[in-house]
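Entry:
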Amino acid sequence: MSPKPLSAEYFDGWYADQAATQVVAEIMNRHMGFPPDTRAGTVPAEAIPELAEALRLRPGSMLLDLACGRGAYGLLITQQAEISLIGVDFSAQALTEAREQAARMGVSNASFRIGELTATGLPDASVDAVLCTDAIQFPDEPASAYEEIRRVLKPGGRAALTCWEPLDHMDERLSPRIRRANLVAGLHQAGFTDVEVRDRPSWLAHEHALWEETVTLDPGNDPAQRSLHAEGLEVPAVDRPAPPRPGSRNQPSINLHFMPVYRDNG
């Protein structure tokens, strides 16, 4: 029986497939600007300095990388600062790879533990900053994830999130999870203040280039390449064009954009 989509078991298999081949990592690193042997996602390397600056980390700070996956983003930030890192993810396979990646990068002040986006298992007010890249849209009840971020943050702590948001919430080509994404509303409802949203079209351009390449490749029988190829076909801008929208300046039909969010937890 196949695991439930987007479950921990599903992602265990997905990460294991990725780890079994270098091809997918090579393609992604080339488009996202990461060094060889990095196992990251679709937030490009150029985002790291801005995310680190937004978190305002100080020596001795504790950073939570929430839904960390293989841990690349938190590790890259920790590598450049005198801080400690704790990564939380529900995939045991992802955490195994995160620990291996930490060892390769020489980051010794990092630990990783099983936990959920909505239930990290960490104490109240236990971290100085929270990083969450491209994952806040996954919970069935997103409000619980925003509330969990606020719960674990110390007073005055900061959070930096990245996510796609629809230009048109009624665009049925997009998945329901993306159509309902609204970072500003979610953060405000959880009690956050000083929320700032920044569009980053250059980040999205890196991802577009990735999907444009992957849909032209023959994945053969490699499960990791087949997964990447299928994901590229699901992106509207790659799959088919869309008519111009009033006020959109004829933007491509992806109808999504990266939105890193920063806020003070007063």
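The two ends are 47 Å apart (CA to CA).
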